[in-house]
Write a structure and sequence with these properties.
This protein is mainly alpha-helical and 410 residues long. Helices cover 70% and strands 0% of the residues.
Length: 410
């Protein structure tokens, strides 16, 4: 691995932790991000000569902090306030903060999820700042064009700056009003790790693990909240299959073809127990329903034994709780497994006008057309999906499907 590749890998792994600490100390998003970028450039230069340090995260933090202080000192508008910035740098988190929210990244996530910002802006800003996701990745997660997402992120930052939204942890009794956005952030970080929307790696293990870690902190922080338990259960159940999703050559293995002996039994057991605890709190929500769907897959000894009738029923319930294109596409797939591909295709046809750049819609449509023995239409849908998909393993899978429909001319 080259020094540049090592820097990129470490930067992805350490981005959220270092940036959270910098923003907590300097209370300035732009200053923190610019300083971390300076540290990254420095790392690219120094690590080629000196090698990667034993604790690269601490190295990045130290250099970024120095760059931030230098930037403040050079700024004529901020120079007068340098004295007020020094105490937080030396003091660190207060005892109250540590008692109430024992995690710097989670603290900043709650700060980003301020109710005066639109929900989508809360989620997008936190994903970019702490999840380390790029604007294009976030745009794909929200199914919107990249320029639209860039404008939303810019407006959110401007509102934080102009409205003087404080960078502080809200009291415990105000945390629930920000929980919805925070759960969405954690799940989107997990999804980006589980199936990366871009880059060379189809699975970003560090993002999956970070999301699960944050989920555990949330459950401990709010023990009476059912949806935080449901989300953690959902992530664990999905993550239990991670090692079985790719073969040795990096080719994608679909759920019904995976070696179930490679699924992580401990994660499955923990996820199911968490789901039971969530259901017992008698406060149903969409994450619990999704976890129940994932549990049905996890508990089936074979693909053929999967209870698709129950899964289709759960997706119907989820569509009422949280209507979205994503849910409807998944419901169409489940219905196709129960009632046949024609019924699934009928549901998809009703979604076509709003399918846009959501490539799983085109994948689902292509698969159903293939099962209906309509190769030309299926090939067109696979081609459309390929044009929109950024995950390398999924692209290779789609290309194989397309090649099977359109063999080369001899």
């Amino acid at each position: 691995m080259t020094a540049a590749e090592q820097v990129e890998l470490i930067f992805r792994e350490e981005h959220g932790r270092v940036l959270a600490a910098l923003i907590g100390q300097f209370e300035d998003f732009d200053l923190a991000e610019d300083s971390l970028q300076d540290a990254l450039v420095n790392a690219l230069e120094r690590w080629k000569v000196d090698g990667v340090p034993n604790n690269p995260g601490a190295w990045l933090m130290t250099v970024a902090k120095r760059r931030a202080i230098d930037r403040v000192r050079r700024s004529t508008t901020l120079e007068r306030s340098l004295g007020t910035l020094d105490p937080p740098i030396s003091q660190g988190p207060t005892e109250r903060d540590q008692d109430e929210i024992p995690d710097d990244r989670l603290k900043l996530m709650f700060t980003c999820c301020h109710p005066s910002l639109a929900l989508e802006a809360q989620v997008a800003l936190t994903l970019q700042t702490l999840g380390g996701l790029t604007a294009p990745e976030i745009a794909r997660a929200f199914l919107v064009p990249e320029p639209t997402m860039a404008q939303r992120l810019s407006r959110a930052r401007a509102k934080i700056r102009n409205a003087g939204i404080p960078y502080r942890v809200p009291p415990i009794d105000l945390l629930p009003e920000r929980l919805g956005a925070l759960l969405a952030v954690v799940y989107l970080i997990f999804n980006e790790g589980y199936s990366a929307t871009g880059g060379d790696e189809p699975i970003r293990k560090e993002l999956c693990e970070e999301a699960i870690r944050l989920g555990r902190v949330l459950v401990a922080l709010l023990p009476g909240n059912a949806e935080s338990r449901g989300l953690l259960a959902l992530m664990l159940l999905h993550d239990s299959r991670r090692e079985a999703r790719l073969d040795e050559a990096g080719q994608l293995i679909l759920l019904d073809e995976q070696d179930r002996s490679r699924w992580d039994k401990m994660k499955i057991q923990e996820g199911i127990e968490l789901l039971k605890e969530a259901v017992a709190l008698n406060d149903p929500g969409p994450y619990q329903v999704q976890a129940a769907i994932s549990a049905l897959h996890a508990e089936a000894p074979t693909a053929e034994a999967t209870d698709w009738h129950q899964i289709a029923a759960l997706y119907k319930r989820l569509a009422k709780m949280s209507p979205s294109l994503v849910v409807e596409v998944n419901r169409a797939v489940a219905v196709a497994m129960v009632e046949g591909p024609l019924e699934g295709l009928r549901i998809l046809d009703g979604l076509e006008e709003r399918s846009g750049e959501y490539y799983p819609f085109h994948v689902a449509r292509a698969d159903l057309l293939r099962r209906l023995n309509q190769p030309n239409a299926a090939a067109e849908a696979y081609t459309r999906a390929l044009a929109l998909c950024g995950n390398p393993a999924e692209r290779r899978h789609l290309q194989r499907r397309l090649d099977q429909l359109t063999p080369p001319v001899k």
